[in-house]
Design brief:
This protein is of the alpha/beta class. Helices cover 52% and strands 14% of the residues. A five-stranded parallel sheet has the order 2-3-1-4-5.
Length: 190
């Protein structure tokens, strides 16, 4: 099974790019599944989403913990299934960047050593101002969707993903995908 991880902060285009990646591999005849977190088909995903819509330190902590259990649930259910050729995990490890700085590094290292990883790990990065502009179209506002939070969490996230492919997603959807697609083509040949 090919495991592709598409991660990044809110508003950078993770789900959009995951769908384009899925379509690429389906055109090649593969069976592809996308798991996006928080998911709504299990207790942990629903609780993570509810906490994200709340405010305060307790909800931040709850959102991060429930999110991690949601990801673990997805791994247990879908990783290495014989009926899936490519599994695309959206919002996978970088959720730990939403924790306080010291906990973020510890949480990331722990989960990085604990969950399956891959050579196909993409961190989509966009300027916080670009992301805020994209948020204007949303009806629900999550607790981390302020300029101050985006800057702080982005800096933590970038310090964690040094060995990932970092993709500039401040650009158009097509330009962003072309960067990802060229890396996919190279990795598929290896």
């Amino acid at each position: 099974m090919r495991l592709i991880i598409v991660d990044g902060l809110d508003g950078v285009g993770k789900d959009t790019q995951a769908q384009l990646i899925k379509e690429r591999y389906e055109r090649l005849g593969e069976r592809v599944l996308i798991r996006s977190h928080p998911s709504n088909d299990n207790f942990f995903g629903r609780k993570a989403k509810k906490s994200l819509l709340g405010q305060g330190k307790i909800n931040k902590l709850k959102a991060s913990v429930f999110y991690m259990f949601d990801v673990l649930t997805s791994i247990r259910k879908y990783y290495r299934r014989k009926d899936i050729d490519t599994l695309i995990m959206v919002r996978y490890l970088v959720g730990t960047a939403y924790l306080p700085k010291k906990l973020a590094k510890i949480g990331y290292k722990f989960f990085y050593g604990f969950v399956p990883t891959s050579k196909y790990m993409f961190f989509l990065d966009a300027e916080p101002e670009v992301v805020l502009k994209r948020f204007e179209k949303r009806t629900e506002k999550e607790m981390f969707e302020t300029l101050e939070s985006l800057v702080k969490v982005r800096n933590k996230a970038l310090s964690l993903v040094k060995d990932w492919y970092i993709i500039n997603s401040s650009r158009s959807i097509d330009e962003t995908y072309l960067s990802i697609e060229s890396i996919l083509a190279k990795l598929d040949r290896i």
